[in-house]
Specification:
heterodimer, A: mainly alpha, Fumarate Reductase Iron-sulfur Protein, Chain B, domain 2, 3 domains, 21 helices, elongated, B: alpha/beta, Rossmann fold, 4-stranded parallel beta sheet, iron (chain A), 4 iron, 4 sulfur cluster binding (chain A), 4Fe-4S (chain A)
Chain lengths: ~450, ~260
């Protein structure tokens, strides 16, 4: 009988690990639907980016209030996970507060710090719930913030609040049990925040108190395991992917568009320029630009899974702010949803990419991508270095080069460049006319 | 020699006399053809003449960098333009390029290297800032802009795309004007609405034009002058000011024009 809790615990952890592994495999494969791109260069600059942007939350602080509240949750998450280590060991070994005897009075300090962070997380989550639902911060109520994204956002906050309440309840009942059964419950010393809950539990009998303490313990650990599975279905996956996403983010100037080497080969051949690669067999050219998720890079798809739908990109987007349909956040959400749909279909033995749908057309419209001014406001705004612009521009490449479906006035602009070497229809021989009046103007010397 | 005319040498002329200038001034399509923007080209050439920098332009040999084609998705057309331009520039052994257009600047600086064009490329704001720092132009202490309110509209392709935020501001400060910032400036700057080839088509359906939104913000600062460093921004902001019927009170000027004017050129 005495091992039943341990066995149960191992089963719960095992089930969670099994589901998690499956989910991670799913997401990994979805990301690998994208084209390969070598981002293994410049490791120190990349590490630096990751430390500053993901670990250091640098870009969050462009908006101080949400950044500060987010920081509390983030630090809480990192530090409270140390306590989870004790939870897991206790669960496996059948012990209670394994570290308490070893850490002595430091254990009390540690527990008080954890409790402070738990309260800070709780506070931030409550404020965030109010911001979302009562103050209705605009960026959380855009067209793409439909049922699930809105529910997802609220669920995460509510779950975090409940998990924090479980910790505090557990500590409060534990403190009471320490006074009633000092032999079985190691002293933690007085814990500041949970002490406020003691009067609520004081009336309980010993048995009931044990049940409350164990209940809260189980609730917290099972809750955490369930939550970790949940986040693989949620925008909250950013807590894991923000790190690789910033590590692999672009080190180039924001204005630089990727060169299409396949096109370079053709252009060189057309212009009769000999290059070293000319002798090599032409690389297999799939599609020019991007129509579906497999035309994007794995990095684009990883970014899509890293997006937490905060909408800072969209709220800075000039097209969006002036009422156009484009929303950079929606571009990322669509990319993730499409990748997930394709991958899920493949896993079920379905049609995958060949389901008659595509990212461009069924998820993202031309009207959206055409509205982009390529101003990089979305890229600048993203706290985890996601680049929606890259996806938009790749789609424009597909429309222009595979479909010849660009807006008519762009097609005339292309024609002007081809024939007059300027986007406007002027005679190329007139290009230097501006200098004529200048040459006759008198200047002091 | 008390009076002379401005010189606008071409690379071809220079090459035929065996000279090679220190910088190539890349004029760009707007700088060559747009009636309003030609003034910026001329103003910059006047400044170059005045400080005696050894420069040349490509003249008829220059063509579009391909930026709008690339942003609109036509990679073939972009590369055709780029490779042709690179062949011309490499033929003249160009080392340093100065341009007033942030789109040309971005493309030649960041995108031509992948196609074999490697040059030191600087935007005219940075170039003007260097001239000011060297004491060659824009001496502090008065001039027609003294005390006037100027606001600077960040060009996306200069600012966010390439992190040039300070040079244009330092140029304006040298005018001894009062620089007032818009609420959305620097990294948070708001697009004029013309980048990404938007200049060449109508905007998608919305509830406002981007340039109107931006112009309203610029006018709110109470500035007499909206300073820009980009041909597209110049057009979009000028249109915005006209739309608000403020062209009598507020002028939209490029940095080069402001410097040239304060120098009496």
């Amino acid at each position: 009988m005495e091992y039943i809790q341990q066995v149960l615990f191992l089963i719960v952890v095992g089930v969670a690990a099994f589901i998690l592994t499956k989910r991670i495999k799913h997401i990994r494969s979805a990301i690998q639907l994208g084209k390969d791109v070598d981002l293994s260069d410049n490791k120190s600059a990349r590490l630096n980016n990751m430390l500053l942007v993901a670990f250091g939350q640098k870009k969050m602080f462009k908006r101080f209030i949400p950044a500060f509240l987010h920081l509390l949750i983030y630090v809480g998450f990192l530090v409270i996970n140390l306590e989870v280590l004790e939870f897991v060991l206790d669960g496996i070994l059948g012990t209670h507060r394994l570290f308490a005897p070893y850490l002595g009075s430091f254990y009390n300090v540690l527990m008080n710090v954890f409790e402070f962070l738990a309260v800070a997380v709780l506070f931030s989550c409550v404020v965030f719930l109010i911001r979302r639902n009562v103050l209705k911060v605009k960026r959380f109520h855009a067209a793409e913030m439909t049922k699930w994204p809105t529910l997802d956002g609220n669920l995460i906050l509510v779950i975090e609040i409940i998990l924090m309440i479980a910790i505090l309840t557990m500590n409060a009942s534990d403190q009471l049990l320490q006074t009633r059964m000092p032999d079985q419950y190691a002293s933690t010393g007085s814990l500041f925040f949970s002490s406020f809950l003691i009067p609520l539990l004081d009336g309980f009998g010993d048995n009931m108190l044990v049940i409350v303490e164990r209940g809260a313990w189980w609730f917290h650990i099972v809750g955490i395991l369930a939550f970790s599975v949940y986040i693989t279905y949620s925008k909250h996956l950013h807590i894991a992917l923000a790190f690789p996403n910033t590590y692999y983010s672009s080190l180039k100037p924001k204005g630089e568009m990727n060169n299409m080497d396949a096109v370079t080969n053709e252009v060189n051949m057309m212009l009769g320029i000999n290059t070293e690669q000319a002798a090599a067999p032409p690389a297999e050219v799939g599609r020019f630009g991007a129509k579906d998720v497999n035309d994007l890079t794995w990095k684009n798809i990883m970014s899509a899974y890293s997006c937490t739908e905060c909408g800072r990109c969209t709220s800075e987007c000039p097209a969006n702010q002036t009422g156009k349909k484009l929303s950079p956040r929606k571009i990322m959400m669509d990319t993730r949803d499409r990748a997930d749909e394709v991958q899920t279909s493949i896993e079920k033995g379905g049609k995958g990419l060949e389901d008659g749908k595509s990212l461009l057309g069924d998820y993202i419209t031309k009207e959206e991508i055409n509205a982009c001014t390529s101003c990089n406001a979305c890229v600048e705004a993203c706290p985890v270095n996601i680049n929606p612009l890259e996806i938009i521009l790749e789609m424009r490449r597909y429309v222009a080069m595979e479909e010849s479906g660009s807006p008519a006035s762009w097609n005339s602009m292309f024609q002007n460049i081809e024939t007059s070497f300027a986007p406007w229809k002027f005679a190329p021989t007139d290009r230097f006319n501006w200098a004529n009046d200048l040459k006759s103007e008198k200047a002091d010397s | 020699m008390s009076e002379t005319t401005y010189k606008v040498p071409t690379m071809a002329e220079m090459a035929s006399s065996g000279e090679s200038p220190e910088i190539l001034f890349w004029v760009g399509c707007a700088g060559s053809f747009d009636d309003r923007y030609k003034n910026v080209t001329k103003a910059f050439v006047k400044i170059l003449n005045k400080v005696g920098v050894s420069f040349a332009v490509l003249g008829p040999e220059e063509t579009c960098t391909g930026d709008p084609a690339r942003r609109a998705g036509n990679e073939f057309l972009f590369q055709m333009q780029a490779v042709a331009n690179i062949q011309v520039m490499n033929g003249y052994n160009v080392k340093k390029v100065v341009t007033a257009c942030p789109h040309c600047f971005n493309t030649i600086k960041n995108e031509y290297p992948a196609l074999g064009g490697n040059y030191e490329v600087i935007h005219h704001s940075t170039f003007l800032q260097q001239l000011i720092n060297d004491g060659k132009v824009g001496l502090k202490g008065g001039g027609e802009f003294k005390g006037k309110k100027i606001t600077y509209h960040d060009s996306c392709y200069l600012g966010r795309a390439n992190n040039v935020y300070e040079a244009p501001r330092e140029v304006l400060e040298a005018l001894d004007a009062e620089l007032v910032e818009m609420k959305r400036c620097k990294t948070k700057g708001f697009c004029c609405g013309a980048g990404g080839a938007q200049m060449f088509k109508d905007a998608e359906k919305g509830n406002k034009e981007v340039n109107i939104d931006r112009t309203e913000e610029a006018l709110e600062t109470g500035a007499d002058t909206i300073a820009v460093g980009c041909p597209f921004c110049l057009t979009m902001m000028s249109d915005g000011v006209k739309n608000k019927e403020k062209e009598g009170q507020v002028q939209v000027k490029d940095l080069a024009e402001l410097i040239a004017e304060s120098e009496g050129l």
